[in-house]
Design a protein that fits this description.
- By secondary structure, the protein is mainly α.
- Helices cover about 80% and strands about 0% of the residues.
- The chain has helices spanning about 5-10, 15, 20-60, 65-90, 90-115, 120-140, 150-160, 165-170, 175-185, 190-210, 215-230, 235-240, 245-275, 280-295, 295-305, 310-330, 335-360, 370-395, 400-410, 415-425.
- Helix 13 (about 245-275) packs parallel to helix 18.
- It is globular, with a radius of gyration of 21 Å.
Length: about 425
């Protein structure tokens, strides 16, 4: 069979019938996830903040400025599948550690590409660097493995809010890391990737060393024990019945929010640079945006658990629409309105990711959960790649305002999707709310 379950066969029995031990392991695992996410947040910020600017500087054209985000998210797609499969067979510990370490290797490659002015190496390295982004997102699932159904959204939110410290600090260290990079003979725009390399490697080591016993392996063993005794766990029943509609709805919510967020976010630094904003101002806006993506998570998690997945999915579409309108009408020299627009963009994405993730966890059981989650994250990453690649073309042939309005309009598709899911679940007398 697989290595990780065998490794714990001698010890896992003590968790199977002890809810107290499961609860303690749940809390300990969540703490490890929080610790790793602080580092992971700092790692993901580099590509978001200066990836497009670095490519524009190296390639000398704006029309390809969206390519870094596309490559990063394509790499994230491949890594999501890879990390999901590793986690399925060997547990979260090895899967997440491998993903973060690969992301760190990719960041090192970006630095070498900048030093050697090699576009080919830059593109290859950004693909590998995307593994860190995928792993940073998949880590949110590790906190839910032993969570009760009414704790799942909160567990997701705790994992995500812990990303805030690193994610906000990263973009605001653009000047500092740029000066450090220059002092050692590296182009300034590659400076944030030095921070990313260190951060991702540290995040990977935290999982590799401390996530023992593995919460996913324990959750799978508990579930299989219940099945073998002929006891269908309540959440197992619920996940089985709602799996089809739950997977479709959860995936759609996260895919649409990812496309809108990536498209607008990718072109905002280019738009700002065109209108005379400094690199420090770009870092501030993106830092606030990333903070808005993660900081509201605790409140969002409580709301998703209390008022439901469907309501918060609809709220996501409404907030993203407001973000698109605000970005479209923002005066080019107005930092205040740009900050407002990018903050709303982050909040809307946050609502969609947490509600969508909770729906996916509800719709799966531990025996196939990691692989399914990885597969869905592939679709999310591919959606982000499409948004990133098309964003530069849209702006080059129209404007940033048109891109923003189109993104806001696309977010409204969330409303009919969740209405469909609600009517379907009502017809089946099986609500997907948690």
């Amino acid at each position: 069979m697989t290595r990780e379950p065998q490794l714990f066969d001698r010890h896992i029995h003590q968790y199977i019938n002890s809810t107290d031990m499961q609860r303690k392991l749940y809390k300990r695992s969540l703490f490890i996830v929080v610790l790793s996410q602080i580092f992971g947040g700092a790692g993901l910020a580099a590509g978001v903040t200066v990836g497009a600017l670095l490519a524009q500087e190296m390639l000398g054209t704006e029309s390809l400025a969206g390519v870094p985000a596309a490559l990063l998210t394509l790499g994230s797609a491949a890594a999501a599948l890879w990390v999901g499969r590793l986690s399925e067979h060997y547990g979260r510990r090895l899967g997440l550690a491998a993903g973060f370490l690969a992301g760190g290797l990719g960041a090192v490659g970006v630095i070498l590409a900048a030093v050697n002015n090699s576009a080919a190496l830059l593109f290859i390295s950004l693909l590998i660097y995307g593994a860190g982004t995928a792993t940073n997102l998949q880590a949110r699932y590790a906190g839910t493995d032993l969570a009760r159904p009414n704790q799942r959204a909160k567990a997701i939110s705790i994992a995500m809010v812990s990303t805030t410290l690193g994610a906000v600090a990263g973009p605001n260290m653009v000047d500092v890391t740029g000066r450090f990079a220059t002092s050692i003979g590296v182009p300034a725009l590659a400076g944030p990737f030095i921070l990313a390399a260190v951060a991702y490697i540290l995040a990977g080591m935290v999982f590799l060393i401390f996530l023992r016993p593995d919460p996913y392996v324990v959750a799978k063993a508990v579930f299989e024990s219940q099945q073998s005794l002929g006891q269908k766990a309540a959440e197992g029943k619920r996940g089985h019945k709602s799996s089809n509609s739950g997977l479709v709805v959860g995936a759609t919510v996260m895919i649409l929010t990812q496309i809108v967020m990536i498209a607008i976010m990718t072109m905002t630094p280019i738009h700002m640079k065109h209108h005379g904003h400094s690199l420090a101002e770009v870092g501030l806006v993106i830092g606030i945006h990333i903070g808005s993506m993660y900081f509201p998570s605790l409140i969002t998690g409580v709301l998703v658990d209390k008022i439901g997945r469907t309501a918060m999915s609809i709220a996501s579409g409404g907030v993203l629409l407001l973000a698109g309108i605000a970005a479209a009408v923002a005066p080019p020299d107005s930092m205040l309105v740009l900050v407002l627009a990018l903050s709303l963009l982050g909040i809307g994405w946050n609502f969609g990711l947490i509600s969508g993730t909770a729906i996916i966890v509800d719709a799966t059981d531990p025996t196939t959960r990691a692989k399914t989650q990885g597969t869905i994250d592939v679709l999310i990453a591919l959606a982000g790649a499409s948004g990133g690649a098309l964003s530069g073309m849209v702006v080059a042939h129209s404007s940033y305002a048109i891109l923003s309005l189109a993104g806001g309009g696309l977010a409204l598709l969330l409303v009919p999707v969740v209405i469909w899911s609600r009517s379907k679940s009502t017809a089946q007398n099986q609500p997907i709310e948690g």
